[in-house]
Amino acid sequence: MSKDKGFVSEITPQAEDFSRWYIDVIKKAELMDYSPVRGCIVFRPEGYEIWENIQKELDRRFKETGHRNAYFPMFIPESFFQKEKEHVEGFNPELPFVTEAGGEILEERLAVRPTSETMFGHMYSKWIQSYRDLPMLINQWANVVRWEKRTLPFLRTSEFLWQEGHTAHEDEADARKETMTMLDVYTDFVENVLAIPVIKGQKTPSEKFAGAVDTYSIEAMMKDGRAVQAGTSHYLGTNFAVAFDIKYLSRENNLEYCHTTSWGVSTRLIGALIMVHGDDRGLVMPPKVAPTQLIMIPIGPPKTREQVIAKTDELYAQLKAAGVRVRVDDRSDVSPGWKFNEYEMRGVPIRLELGPRDLENGVCVLVSRITGEKKQVPLDNIVAEVEAALEAAHNDMYNRALQFREENFYSVETLDELKASADEKRGFALAGWCGSDACEKQVKDETGYTSRNIPFETAETKTKCLVCGDDAKHTVVFAKAY
Amino acid sequence: MSKDKGFVSEITPQAEDFSRWYIDVIKKAELMDYSPVRGCIVFRPEGYEIWENIQKELDRRFKETGHRNAYFPMFIPESFFQKEKEHVEGFNPELPFVTEAGGEILEERLAVRPTSETMFGHMYSKWIQSYRDLPMLINQWANVVRWEKRTLPFLRTSEFLWQEGHTAHEDEADARKETMTMLDVYTDFVENVLAIPVIKGQKTPSEKFAGAVDTYSIEAMMKDGRAVQAGTSHYLGTNFAVAFDIKYLSRENNLEYCHTTSWGVSTRLIGALIMVHGDDRGLVMPPKVAPTQLIMIPIGPPKTREQVIAKTDELYAQLKAAGVRVRVDDRSDVSPGWKFNEYEMRGVPIRLELGPRDLENGVCVLVSRITGEKKQVPLDNIVAEVEAALEAAHNDMYNRALQFREENFYSVETLDELKASADEKRGFALAGWCGSDACEKQVKDETGYTSRNIPFETAETKTKCLVCGDDAKHTVVFAKAY
């Protein structure tokens, strides 16, 4: 692992400056670096490997739910964006354009894709003729670009990596079912793989995807109380089908428009898992996506070194064969104490300390990054011990994140109450909303809180709008968001 | 599987028009479609899945040889290309430029990456300080763009997918070792996974990568006798290290330039495997990357249907569990004969026909797409039978491709001989070459043949240059190339 020029020697405490803490840990742990292009980062191997593990888990789930991957061109003719009115309004301000190529000025400018509803729409109109071709269920893993004014590594960058699913269906019921299936896939993944509890719900009209009929999201709470939208799933109705002429011959022999959906998650999940789990010592990686799940550190005096390393290698081979992502740090020019700090900072969930006396007694010391708990474990059962410790670490992380969210989830009746709490508290506020854009906008203007979503499940149902006091149509989660 | 507007009902025979045959099969088998952007194709699921299988196999090999993946920005400031003289000359004519973004004209134009030596170089100069940071071994899977005048699906498209490895080393010896290791990884992969025999060798100076000291390639022969460069590995010397200031403190405490390498393969491998293995009935997929390795087709009269399908499902589950990529086509509205043709056209290596009488006798019929051989195999040993058949199919394909190459590999003494043979023959020609650019250019101008590489191993060593008759410095493989 290489050293960095401008190496960050200290990590700013979270309570002092959460944003500084975030930048300190991701730089120090070598997850990313800034690039010479505005708002674009380099995903370094330690950061990219998290994404690879995310991809593996999600891709399996997509395939199990009947989807196949494909790859569509990243350049999109400018005219395509004009075809869906809301879509162009939503994305036009953020588009980069290729205007010259191969030494010539292009006749039509090409946008670099911010999302691919238009390109999929164009191709689907060629591929879909009959109900027999439906549903069409395609996903792509790709880079996308949105020329953002304010950027933050992983959470908001000009170029980022994501997956975008695009599906076409015979009718609304089937498309809505797909929309919910994928929201459930995301929920399962984020909760059970990333150990992040989420709130499932529907976006308000002002926050929905440009061109969607309905947008659904999962929202997660960071350790500074802010929200991150961790995944979205859109029911697009026939909006893109009409714009791109995606029609099929129905079972009743009528020519009908398809109902389409799209859904995506991105590399912002990396930012989210850091901000949910990290602490003042550095990263805390969820075991199921951690590049290194287990670090083994041989200790003891030089004269026992050979024998300790031999035993370590033997255990390493066993763990590796069992599928554990394990590394050994047997360098002799850095102290065990330095290594302990280093791998704590990098967020490795489990550490094994292997000393000569313990090994003689057939045990070693297992230390949890999450709880700090140390315990002796028998070597002859090492794989099961490590697997149980990883499972426990995942559960600890999820429960801590859930507890934190519950402690920072409150309820307000009026805008004044929200204003007051926005100054002293952090977290998510539950409030009633009449459904008007004006009231929603007033909340945003006066508090900086935006509506995150209208949760599917909530312990409390509000009856009055926090702004105008009229009857509440919805109970909404408001928060400051990344 | 969807039907296509403009569905190709017939496949042009290879002998009649090889290019037409190629387009016919890739369209009919739904591997790709043309996009509305010039020279950019859509990789449809059937085509993209080949790439996914290629990625899986290669990625494992990269990691086993010590590399890690990362992701670098696709936009590269124009000024970066100016820093390495040969590099800018080589790539400038093909660059697309983003000149506007977010509604504003950019101060510096951004190229969309054609390859990333410059961006890696810039970042490596920040990350590498000491010999302890070396070697730095990073790969990325990415899309790249080269604005090509003449395009051909998979083989030459404006946007394509590839991997690019970029490594930095202490000295020439270590960098040259890496260059050869990766050429060997490619050779192993292309021969043992794609079943394509290749010729390993060094590119002549006029054909080397823009900015490299030496370029090495593997070259494969298509069924029309043309060559496809299937992979390249470059020793870049200190060219990019000097241009981007990639220096390290050596073991002797001196500040030294790194020696760097780069190496890549792309989605053109999909085109190559089609052109090497396909025949007049359609695709023939190498078993190790085939999206479907085995198709199971239940046959027999309606009254036995239920029982046949029950048994098919049971066998399917066994094969699936064993890791075979198997599908069942139990549709009752298309005939077995239609299905046989369909999956032959799609190149599925093995077909199982499951009829009621055979099943009663505990057997089924296994048909090889490659040899056409049919044989009865016992059901109680089906996994081993299928695995053996897939292995045999791979070997048959490799041997046929090798035999074809040997039959179309000839030797010439003079340019006149090459000119004559270029008209009547197809294939690769071995000839002596004095080493001058002028002679090489004359071969190209008068025959359309280009030097493919200087093979590491050759049965014959030429002593005279085919053009000028001077002493030959090298024995070179010449061919028409895609």
TrEMBL record, chains A, B:
Sequence ranges assigned to domain Aminoacyl-transfer RNA synthetases class-II family profile in this UniProt record: 38-286
Localization: Cytoplasm
Record SMART domains: ProRS-C_1 (SM00946)
Name of the top EC class for this enzyme: ligase
Keyword ATP-binding among UniProt keywords: yes
Cross-referenced PROSITE patterns: AA_TRNA_LIGASE_II
Any one GO cellular component localisation term in the record: cytoplasm
Keywords recorded for this protein, A-Z: Aminoacyl-tRNA synthetase, ATP-binding, Cytoplasm, Ligase, Nucleotide-binding, Protein biosynthesis
Major location (coarse): cytoplasm
Catalytic activity: tRNA(Pro) + L-proline + ATP = L-prolyl-tRNA(Pro) + AMP + diphosphate
GO BP annotations, alphabetical order: prolyl-tRNA aminoacylation
Listed InterPro entries: aa-tRNA-synt_IIb, aa-tRNA-synth_II, aa-tRNA-synth_II/BPL/LPL, Anticodon-bd, Anticodon-bd_dom_sf, Pro-tRNA-ligase_IIa, Pro-tRNA-ligase_IIa_arc-type, Pro-tRNA_ligase_II_C
Enzyme Commission number(s) from the entry: 6.1.1.15
Keyword Phosphoprotein: no
Single GO molecular function: proline-tRNA ligase activity
Superkingdom assignment: Bacteria
Pfam families found in the cross-reference section: HGTP_anticodon, ProRS-C_1, tRNA-synt_2b
HAMAP family: Pro_tRNA_synth_type3 (MF_01571)
Function of the protein: Catalyzes the attachment of proline to tRNA(Pro) in a two-step reaction: proline is first activated by ATP to form Pro-AMP and then transferred to the acceptor end of tRNA(Pro).
Assembly and oligomerization: Homodimer.
Family, similarity comment: Belongs to the class-II aminoacyl-tRNA synthetase family. ProS type 3 subfamily.
Domain remarks: Consists of three domains: the N-terminal catalytic domain, the anticodon-binding domain and the C-terminal extension.
Protein name, as recorded: Proline--tRNA ligase
Natural source organism: Cohnella thailandensis
Lineage start: Bacteria, Bacillati, Bacillota, Bacilli, Bacillales
